[in-house]
Amino acid sequence: MTLTLDAPRIVTVDPLLELHGVNKSYGPVVALRNVHATVFPGEVLGIVGESGSGKSTLLRMMNLEETPDSGSYTLDLPDVDGNLFELDRFARRMLCATRIGIVYQNPHLGLLMKHSSSGNVAERLLVAGERRFAVLREKATDALAASEFPLERLDAPPIELSGGMQQRVQLAKAIALEPALLLLDEPTTGLDVSVQALVLDTLKRLQQDRKITMVIVSHDLGVIRTLADRVMVMRRGEVVEAGLADQIFQDPQHAYTQQLVHAKL
Ligand SMILES: Nc1ncnc2c1ncn2[C@@H]1O[C@H](COP(=O)(O)OP(=O)(O)OP(=O)(O)O)[C@@H](O)[C@H]1O
Ligand SMILES: [Mg+2]
């Protein structure tokens, strides 16, 4: 019997995100080569691959921080049309500020380290146009609470916080506007194993409660296995294998994926 696992989903639901034929080089370095990616609403796409395989570059593309040499990017959202790589800087910034949340590999990229934690989250709401102080305060506090940040530390600047707490502030900032798409770049890397588990639990809870569509990058297969519905394996800028998470972990087809999965077991 032939199983066509993807068929029912594809015919009934349009993808939220589609990237087609994305190429990007930095001088002689090919960071992305003909990358395609599809993410359906409410789903978690995990991207794995060795260091330098292009994972962060791909996530920056999804956050419209980078323009590829060629390729297209569409998001199936109200009032959002066409190839997003063709938008001007202002339109990109507004789209990202209002519809996309990101947690960076390095908290220094995502946070103002000397401003208060609640101020960091409020700033995100300000950029999106919110001006009422009480609403700013309430929404920032709600997002920090949902990220399981200790509310007695609302005024503490990220520079005084542990790595796990800094990731929670980034997460609160990313979800404050209830984004249609949440991008996470190595959200648990560099954290102690016990703290990693707590951040993973928070992400899992957010996913279950809010059904946020997520793309999560990690070189840690355990993280991807815990969170992802669908997995993309990258190597040297190329997607070597993509499929449902269960299938990738139980029956990897590509030699590189087999090596990754078996190294982890
Ligand atoms: N702004 C840039 N300028 C020059 N080269 C870059 C730039 N960004 C990425 N690269 C190169 O592109 C390739 C892919 O980098 P990328 O950061 O996307 O990898 P990664 O998979 O996220 O790696 P890691 O697991 O170490 O975070 C690397 O060879 C990197 O050196
Ligand atoms: Mg990276």
UniProtKB/TrEMBL annotation:
Matching CDD domains: ABC_NikE_OppD_transporters
Protein name (database record): ABC transporter ATP-binding protein
GO molecular function, a single term: ATP binding
Pfam families with a match to the protein in the record: ABC_tran
Family annotation (SUPFAM superfamilies): P-loop containing nucleoside triphosphate hydrolases
Keyword set, alphabetical order: ATP-binding, Nucleotide-binding
The keyword Nucleotide-binding appears for this protein: yes
Annotated ranges, domain ABC transporter: 17-261
Organism: Marivita lacus
